[in-house]
Write a structure and sequence with these properties.
By secondary structure, the chain is α+β, with helices and mostly antiparallel strands. It has a domain of 154 residues: Alpha-Beta Plaits (2-Layer Sandwich), CATH 3.30.70. Strands 4-1-3-2-5-6 form a six-stranded antiparallel β-sheet, with helices on both faces. A hairpin with a 4-residue loop joins strand 5 and strand 6. The longest helix is centred in the middle third of the chain and has 30 residues. The structure holds adenosine-5'-triphosphate (2 copies) and magnesium ion (MG) (4 copies). One magnesium ion (MG) binds next to loops. GO terms for molecular function: GTP binding; magnesium ion binding; tRNA guanylyltransferase activity. It catalyses: a 5'-end ribonucleotide-tRNA(His) + GTP + ATP + H2O = a 5'-end phospho-guanosine-ribonucleotide-tRNA(His) + AMP + 2 diphosphate + H(+). It comes from Trichoplax adhaerens (Trichoplax reptans).
């Protein structure tokens, strides 16, 4: 097409290519999901339907963008790790982030009915960001940070909702009861007052969800599988040495 006299406006666009040789992480997070979860009557502290829907959307994103080697989901957030050599969209950060986030959001709406009987009351929003990590250690520390966050929040929420749902505490009283407690105190409280062994709670709640490509021997192709395992220690990384190679 011939150039028009207006074409110069394109020069105002800013280059945002991700630095070469870095891990590209796209993290998205639901906007005001505190409200969204209560309006849609999510089970507290953890609605497994919502977590499974998030994982379904995470899989949809990975299948569309096979340069993603790993996904990690917890609560209303998902992180996607693009391989260092990724050249999708010329590594343009805004292209990567918006394509991932919008496919995730539309999938959330599209697959909602597969997980919830109640209708979706309004369109959910997810924000997105891109972070670059230059070393494998930085990437592992990033994922450890998210999984530690999942653990800390889940231990708190499990204790909080046990006090409310089984201990008949009011919301402010439950908050007061937990104020200043460490993780040992919360484990002890769950066990002695509610006979809950925190370590026996479902792993999807305690560890979050790890999505990765595994060879499907029967179908002779790679599939995205979901695991709920520790990714902070070395075991996961030695068992999945292809990830960082
Ligand atoms: P922001 O817009 O800043 O992200 P937010 O309300 O989404 O605000 P978050 O810190 O992202 O706040 O927390 C998400 C909230 O969504 C949780 O605190 C929890 O109340 C709710 N939530 C998300 N997933 C679930 C789930 N599977 N089961 C129950 N509640 C959930
Ligand atoms: P990219 O992913 O690079 O954006 P694209 O296929 O979306 O690729 P665009 O340059 O964005 O390419 O063009 C959008 C195309 O979508 C148009 O060329 C046209 O074929 C089709 N399209 C969009 N809106 C309409 C419409 N209202 N009616 C018919 N065709 C449409
Ligand atoms: Mg927040
Ligand atoms: Mg949120
Ligand atoms: Mg969140
Ligand atoms: Mg287009």
């Amino acid at each position: 097409m011939a150039k028009s006299r207006y074409e110069y406006v394109k020069l105002f666009e800013q280059a945002d290519q991700c630095l070469r040789n870095c891990w590209i992480v796209v993290r998205l997070d639901g906007r005001c999901f505190h409200k969204f979860s209560s309006q849609h009557r999510f089970k507290k502290p953890n609605d497994d339907r919502a977590l499974n829907l998030m994982n379904h959307c995470g899989k949809a994103v990975m299948k569309e963008f096979p340069d993603i080697i790993l996904g990690y989901g917890q609560s209303d957030e998902f992180s996607f790790i693009f391989k260092k050599s990724c050249n999708l969209f010329g590594r343009r950060a805004s292209k990567l982030m918006t394509n991932v986030t919008s496919l995730f959001s539309s999938s959330y709406v599209f697959y909602w009915k597969n997980y919830f009987n109640d209708i979706l009351q309004y369109p959910p929003t997810f924000d997105g960001r891109v972070v670059l990590y230059p070393s494998d250690k930085n990437l592992r520390d990033y994922l450890s940070w998210r999984q530690a966050d999942c653990h800390i929040n889940n231990l708190y929420n499990t204790s909080f909702w046990a006090l409310v749902q089984q201990g008949q505490y009011s919301l402010p009283d439950a908050e007061k009861k937990l104020c200043g407690t460490d993780s040992g105190d919360k484990n002890e409280l769950l066990f002695s007052q509610f006979q809950i062994n925190y370590d026996k709670e479902p792993a999807i709640f305690r560890k979050g969800s790890i999505l990765l490509w595994k060879e499907n021997v029967v179908r002779k192709r790679k599939d995205v599988v979901v695991e709920h395992v520790d990714i902070i220690g070395d075991n996961f990384w030695t068992g999945n040495s292809q990830l960082l190679s």
